[in-house]
Amino acid sequence: MQHKPTDIELIEQSLTGDQSAYAELIRRNQRFVFTLALRFTKNREDAEEVAQDCFVKAYRNLQAFQGQSKFSTWLYSIVYTTAMTHLRKKRIATDSIDDEGTFIQIENKPSGYDMNNVENRSRSYYLNLAIEQLLPDDAAVITLFYKGEQSLDEIAQALNMEANTVKVKLFRARQRLKEKLERLLKHEAKELI
Fold first, then answer.
1. d(CA 51, CA 59)
2. Which of 3, 38, 96, 136 is the most exposed place for a label (fewest CB within 10 A)?
3. Predicted pLDDT at 80
4. What is residue 187's DSSP assignment?
């Protein structure tokens, strides 16, 4: 059985100039980095740009990684700051949580492809749609906690916040997510939550 190197071993190898080691770190984290970037930017092209910038920044600052947290936590903090900087530069206005126009736009938005009724009602489809409607901070906390399986302490470290603040943000983000799901699914939201 072949030994699968840990993230720390890959970082050490990367610091000695082994590009294949860093490529493995990218491979292990690219899907989630892109997903998180997409949650913030809400645009595939911008998310790709943010994800690429994150991996470049991480490589340039790899020697600063001290191993006090998981590499993924450290990397996600880079994603968060890079995405926020990107959003500020593009001056993307985020919609208010209570903006009814958002829901009208989504309900009336023509689809690029025809989804059958089963796909249209799938849990993940509506859950992702609801998460996309959250403010970037709420989407980040939800994504890190549920999809990234990060602990409250890890999220606090990634977002440079206190763990109790993250706990409150997660609670409020869940409430907002529930409201969005209820609006999207009306009666079916109760089955999901």
1. 12
2. 3
3. 87
4. G
